[in-house]
Amino acid sequence: MAPVRKRRYMTRLIVLAILAGLVLTACWRLLGEGKQEKVEAGQLASDFKLTDMQTGEAFQLSDMRGKGVLVNFWATYCEPCKQEMPLFEEASDTYENKDVIFAAVNVDESSVVINRFLEQYNLSFPILLDNGQVMEAYGVDALPATFFISEDGTVSRTVYGPLETERLEEYLDKIVP
């Protein structure tokens, strides 16, 4: 290849690489636009209002101020979620007397599937159905995801993945008012 042709070829290659980089950067920004950052410890928990599937009553997070709140995002198809539910049920009996409220936010499944799950696990705490807005507001991208919220409404701890009994009790003790 002649030196002039080689130089043109390299110049074109560099220009194409720069253009490809710009296009990729623009696509990356567009894909990330509108996505909520994950809610982390120390931040104020996003308020939400959902209906409790078991009672039909509204559950609004801001109404729980003055109490500790465990908010768990789950789904019936999530195996770790299934393992956690009996632990949550047992702990909710204990911590209910200590002003800690449990709320399980299901991520947009049918009420038939959820009711079957509730019958199987015999859960007594609020089971809330989310159409994805609350999950998005909390930046949840993996299940299970659990948020421990202090009495003042700030997130004390976030946990992605299943919880063990010892850790669960440790984290709950920190949000007891």
Concise structural overview:
With 177 residues, the chain is α/β, with parallel strands linked by helices. It has helices at residues 3-32, 79-95, 111-121, 133-137, 165-173; strands at residues 49-51, 58-60, 68-74, 100-107, 127-130, 145-149, 155-160. The model has no long low-confidence stretch (mean pLDDT 88).
Number of helices, where a helix is a run of at least 4 consecutive DSSP H or I residues: 5
**Oligomer classification:** single chain
How much beta, percentage-wise?
A: 15-25%
The ordered string of helix (H) and strand (E) elements is HEEEHEHEHEEH
Q: Ends: how far apart?
A: 78 Å
Radius of gyration, CA atoms, in whole angstroms: 23 Å
Q: Mean of the pLDDT scores?
A: 88
Please outline the major beta sheet. Answer: 5 strands, mixed
Which range best describes the helical content: under 10%, 10-25%, 25-40%, 40-55%, 55-70% or over 70%? Answer: 40-55%
Number of strands: 7
Q: Which stretches are low in confidence, meaning pLDDT under 50 for 5 or more residues running?
A: none
- Please list the strands of the largest sheet in the order they lie side by side: 5-4-3-6-7
Q: Which structural category do the helix and sheet elements fall into?
A: alpha/beta
User: What does the overall shape look like?
Assistant: elongated
